[in-house]
Amino acid sequence: MLSKGLFVKPPYVSASNEIDFIDKKSYLGGVLNINNRPLNVIEITHIQINIETNTVGEILIAGLSQVAKSKKVREYCLRGSEIAKKHIQVFASLLTNNSLPAPMPWDLEVTESTISPFSDKLIMFHASLLIQSSISNYATASAASLRNDISTSYVRLTAESAQYAKDGLNLMIKHEWMEQPPQVPNHKGLARG
């Protein structure tokens, strides 16, 4: 695949032979979240991973939208696919604005099938897992990013994902698809009788 030019490699950064220490607070970015320093390798890695996971999520949820029986579930999945596309664009621009190549999918596509192998309940469960994973990835990446503008982007995208997750949870509750997870006993309630 490499020899045919089909495999898009992650950005490459040459390793330095010296140890440098951060000596200015400007490394983090300014008050207005403006930062002109190049991305560091940790930031690049998280951006790359979030592009890849959003690409898989976008394709998977677009495929699920084709086979969902309920109009509300189809609309929810299509919305999720659009959110993933937008997030991919945000992350890709972080790379391209730093003269780095953004990864592109080369073999992911949605078939034309409209026959569902899954129930709408299972589709919503999968969508919920994707969102939870996305929010977890964003939190980790935000904590590891030393540029304020990147952390701010992750916080903004996390808020959008959290709202999407809440809307999905409400849809699952409405259709009685959401099982209550195990919880600790309500000792105060039990003591009252």
Please, could you describe this protein's structure?
The chain has 193 residues and is mainly α. Helices cover 58% and strands 0% of the residues. The protein has 5 helices and no strands. The protein has helices spanning 41-67, 71-96, 120-144, 148-174, 187-192. The longest helix has 27 residues, at 41-67. It is flat.
Q: Helix and strand layout, with pairings?
A:
Blueprint lengths: L40 H27 L3 H26 L23 H25 L3 H27 L12 H6 L1
Write a compact overview of the structure shown.
By secondary structure, this protein is mostly helical. The chain has 5 helices and no strands. The longest helix has 27 residues, at 41-67.
Q: What's the shape?
A: flat
Output the radius of gyration: 21 Å
Assembly level: single chain
Helix content: 55-70%
In terms of DSSP E residues, the strand content is under 5%
**Beta-strand segment tally:** 0
Task: Note the main sheet.
Answer: none
Query: What class would the helix/strand composition place it in?
Result: mainly alpha
Please tell me the overall pLDDT. Answer: 86
Are there runs of 5+ residues with pLDDT below 50, and where?
none
Distance between the termini: 69 Å
What sequence of helices (H) and strands (E) makes up the elements? HHHHH
Number of helices: 5
Record keyword descriptors for this entry.
58% helix, 0% strand, mainly alpha, 193 residues
